[in-house]
């Protein structure tokens, strides 16, 4: 009999990954990557400085946004990730809230912009879930507010499924290995197995194994979901060789960056 592995939720995954998350993301260029989100907000008429960092994790993205002059609130589904964020001294001026981006909590004010830095939307099962997440985000943005989020391209998922990838940081080694139920095709689901090895102070290495269920969203589905949830798609960018360009090459770009806006109030 073939055993079916239990379904993992994004919450289970990050509750387990939390204690090693900062170590495994201690890689060169992390802050520079986060700055792309702010550069895109600034390039599209920065609507204001109240920023909601969706899927903020342990606050690594939030602190970069905050330091770049945005009054940042971080929200994340994982209490363990939020607990770590709240314990960091350098993040004492940032509000961190536990919440699901598909059903965001109420906040005292509307936000001028929202970011999703990480693979948050890939954890959603289908286009209907993507639409409801985007609707939830839209409800927390003021008219004329901006949303900037990144997604993996079809090419990146295909590469992850073709062979394991090894990423080395200072004091960490991460192996990522994607499996699709059939050869990867755009719009399909991939489970990414992540083996994180982190060096402890006693010189021993710790191994944490997590599974990340991801769904690829082709550009047409993203554009349709944005429109159905009341956003205007402003521009999509692709990134290749570290350089951002307008438009998207699903096969050769590493990731896409979407910039979307809520309509201005009329009357
Ligand atoms: C790759 S981490 C990125 C964390 C952070 N933005 C950073 O740059 O370090 C993805 C985060 O998204 C969170 N996440 C995924 N799905 C979510 C959801 N539906 N609602 C809220 N947070 C979610 C996870 O718990 C995790 O902390």
UniProtKB/TrEMBL annotation:
InterPro entries: Methyltransf_25 (IPR041698), SAM-dependent_MTases_sf (IPR029063). Coiled coil: none annotated. Signal peptide: none annotated. Keywords: Methyltransferase, Transferase. CDD domains: AdoMet_MTases (cd02440). Residues 52-145 form the Methyltransferase domain. This is Methyltransferase domain-containing protein.
């Amino acid at each position: 009999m073939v055993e079916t592995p239990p379904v993992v939720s994004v919450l289970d995954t990050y509750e387990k990954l939390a204690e090693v998350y900062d170590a495994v993301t201690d890689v060169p260029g992390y802050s520079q990557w986060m700055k792309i989100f702010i550069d895109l907000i600034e390039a599209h008429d920065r609507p204001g400085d109240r920023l909601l960092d969706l899927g903020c994790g342990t606050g690594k993205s939030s602190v970069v946004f905050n330091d770049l002059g945005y009054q940042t609130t971080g929200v994340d589904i994982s209490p363990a990730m939020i607990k770590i964020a709240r314990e960091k001294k350098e993040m004492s001026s940032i509000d961190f809230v536990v919440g699901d981006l598909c059903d965001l909590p109420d906040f005292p004010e509307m936000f001028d912009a929202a970011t999703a830095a990480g693979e948050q939307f890939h954890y959603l099962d289908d286009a209907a879930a993507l639409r409801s997440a985007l609707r939830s985000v839209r409800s927390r943005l003021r008219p004329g507010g901006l949303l900037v989020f990144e997604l993996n391209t079809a090419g990146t998922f295909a590469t992850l499924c073709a062979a394991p990838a090894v990423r080395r940081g200072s004091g960490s080694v991460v192996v990522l290995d994607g499996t699709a139920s059939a050869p990867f095709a755009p719009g399909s689901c991939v489970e990414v197995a992540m083996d994180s090895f982190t060096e402890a102070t006693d010189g021993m290495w710790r191994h944490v194994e997590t599974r990340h269920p991801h769904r690829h969203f082709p550009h047409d589905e993203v554009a349709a979901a944005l429109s159905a949830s009341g956003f205007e798609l402003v521009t999509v960018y692709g990134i290749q060789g570290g350089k951002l360009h307008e438009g998207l090459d699903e096969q050769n770009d590493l990731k896409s960056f979407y910039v979307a806006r809520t309509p201005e109030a009329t009357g």
